Amino acid sequence: RPESRVWTVMLLLGTCLLYCARVTVPICAVALSTHFDWDKKQSGIVLSSFFWGYCLTQIIGGHISDQIGGEKVLLLSASAWGFLTVLTPLLTHVTSAHLVFMTSSRFLMGLLQGVYFPSLASLLSQKVRESERAFTYSTVGTGSQFGTLVIGGAGSLLLDWYGWESVFYFSGLLTLLWVYCTCKYLLSENELIIPIDYLMRGLSISKQTKVPWKQLFKKAPIWAVIIAQLSTASTFFTLLSWLPTFFKETFPESKGWVFNVVPWLVAIPTSLFSGFLSDHLINQGYKTITIRKFMQVIGSGVSSIFALCLGQTSSFCKAIVFASASVGLQTFNHSGISVNVQDLAPSCAGLLFGVGNTGGALLGVICVYLAGYLIETTGSWISVFNLVAAVNSIGLCAFLMFGEAQRVDTDSAYMDL
């Protein structure tokens, strides 16, 4: 148990730093656009390029994690994206093709970070009891809001004081420090070594595997959770990418540390509460799938209502309230579809989570770029929030109609600590 708590805290910090690195460009979007003379379409290309890379490593990252251990994959990827974040501002000084370079850099960042959440799903599905998964995942998942909060607050101040380059240095160096501490204090020397035959086994999907892939993908609950996951992932990416620009342009006198901090500060307790409430209700005897669907109604449905309200208001205070409610309630997804993958197939949760996140990243590319296109052509932000609500509604309907929580894989030999 003590080791479990330490790992939970470290994984929370890892998720935090993942988002610190991921949100550096959205936080600096206006400064980068001014510095490099980009318009909204060009900014949209840079912002959306992350998701092209993000979608390519989800499935293979999840499968390798199922085979060799999610913690190894997490640390390898974190080391790489930490170095890339530190090097990005340095390398902008040696090239004149800034749009091409930043687009390529974000694409590579997406490749490296794409393995994180499938690896996390694989690790938790093998180490955590079903009755504790929602709270554990929600706790670790708060790292996404905590990371956005940290980079929103500290990043906004660094941006004003020292320029956009300092935001990249801050995020990258903290990531490398986390990797060092995790390797030194939580893993033994033997655990850090990855035998080549283990790695090759992870890179190939053997025909002799115990998991019947064709049968799995014929089941409606699998597709229901995948569709719901890609919908919520893409809309979250859209809000994450464009909210800083929305506030900066709609309320130009507002302070960056306010709108970059408050919504994510609200999201931390809501995420923890959703996990606690979900596990409590399940332990009280309520059906698991009923609770998963209830959480998803709040995470996708109610949050979309507040997103629509955000597009209609002209008051900064109301906009902060609506943005906070929308972002905060989206964390209920952690206790809905995010753990439903582990309910359905704990033996291959990493791979299935990767499939859903791949779809979410692909749709994220479209939604993030489409949002920039809509803003540039219409001059209105209302269409962006309408897009978020429409995509969320599709995923929610699929999950409510076909979602289940009974196990559908065949491998019951997973570790229960």
UniProtKB/TrEMBL annotation:
GO terms for molecular function: purine nucleotide uniporter activity. Residues 7-407 form the Major facilitator superfamily (MFS) profile domain. One of its GO terms (cellular component) is chromaffin granule membrane. Its main location: membrane. Keywords: Cytoplasmic vesicle, Lysosome, Membrane, Transmembrane, Transmembrane helix, Transport. The keyword Protease does not apply. It is found in: Cytoplasmic vesicle, Secretory vesicle, Chromaffin granule membrane; Lysosome membrane. It comes from the Eukaryota. Gene3D superfamilies: MFS general substrate transporter like domains (1.20.1250.20). One of its GO terms (biological process) is purine-containing compound transmembrane transport. CDD domains: MFS_SLC17A9_like. It holds the Pfam family MFS_1. InterPro entries: MFS, MFS_dom, MFS_Na/Anion_cotransporter, MFS_trans_sf, SLC17A9-like, Sugar_transporter_CS. It catalyses: ATP(in) = ATP(out); ADP(in) = ADP(out); GTP(in) = GTP(out). The chain crosses the membrane at residues 7-32, 44-61, 73-95, 137-162, 168-187, 220-242, 262-282, 294-313, 351-375, 381-402. It is a multi-pass membrane protein. The keyword Transmembrane applies. Belongs to the major facilitator superfamily. Sodium/anion cotransporter family. PANTHER family: SOLUTE CARRIER FAMILY 17 (PTHR11662), VOLTAGE-GATED PURINE NUCLEOTIDE UNIPORTER SLC17A9 (PTHR11662:SF279). Voltage-gated ATP nucleotide uniporter that can also transport the purine nucleotides ADP and GTP. Uses the membrane potential as the driving force to control ATP accumulation in lysosomes and secretory vesicles. By controlling ATP storage in lysosomes, regulates ATP-dependent proteins of these organelles. Also indirectly regulates the exocytosis of ATP through its import into lysosomes in astrocytes and secretory vesicles such as adrenal chromaffin granules, mucin granules and synaptic vesicles. This is Voltage-gated purine nucleotide uniporter SLC17A9. It comes from Aptenodytes forsteri (Emperor penguin).
